[in-house]
Amino acid sequence: MGAWVGSHPEALAFVTAPKPFPASFAREKYFGVNAFKLVSTAGKETFVRYRFVPAAGEEHLDDEAVKAKGPDYLYEGVPETLKAGPILLKLVVQVAQEGDVTNNNTVHWPEDRELVELGTVSLDSLYEGGEEAQKGLIFDPIPRVEGVEASDDPLLDLRATLYLLSGRERRAA
């Protein structure tokens, strides 16, 4: 594995990048890796990458604080967090500029790209029976809404295929 990672700079960059421990799911940023194409009614195309940004701000734990936590501390913390109110995440898109790579998610866009806030996602309760319901859910990374299209990133089709297979396996279990 080390030889393979060492010969693939994109993988090496990911493996060696800092990965701080979030204090909770409500205090962490989430980044979509693929580009998507927004198409206006006039046909103008704009490529974006999605982000979810915690309204409460980011918070990370140091190594000592993590050692005091159990392995499932993030999941176990959700009900407690919800007692204080909903978990709010701002839906933001990073807008590509001319020349930005849209078909390879290992190529990062510069952080100086425009960020546009689209709205807020609010989680105010947990779904009872969620574990059983998950067996029937299939995550589809291909947009199925008017005005949002997949980019030409080949990983999107691969992910869609694998998620469909995974969903079938869960339902059969």
Name its key features:
173 residues; Catalase HpII,  Chain A, domain 1; 6-stranded antiparallel sheet; 24% strand; two-stranded antiparallel sheet
Structural account:
Helix content is 31%, strand content 24%. It is an alpha+beta fold and 173 residues long. The protein has a single domain, classed as Beta Barrel (Catalase HpII,  Chain A, domain 1), CATH 2.40.180.10. Strands 2, 3, 4, 6, 7 and 8 form a six-stranded antiparallel sheet that branches. A two-stranded antiparallel sheet has the order 1-5. A hairpin with a 5-residue loop joins strand 3 and strand 4 (45-54).
In CATH, the homologous superfamily goes by the name: Catalase core domain
Query: Low-confidence parts, pLDDT < 50 over ≥5 residues?
Result: none
Under the CATH scheme, the architecture is Beta Barrel
Strand runs, count: 8
Main sheet record: 6 strands, antiparallel
Strand content: 15-25%
Please give the count of helices: 6
- Helix fraction by DSSP (H/I, runs of at least 4): 25-40%
Question: What is the third-level CATH name, the topology?
Answer: Catalase HpII,  Chain A, domain 1
Q: Round the mean pLDDT to the nearest integer and report it.
A: 93
CATH class: Mainly Beta
Beginning-to-end CA distance, first to last residue: 31 Å
The helix-strand sequence is: HHEEEEEHHEEHEH
As for the number of domains, it is: 1
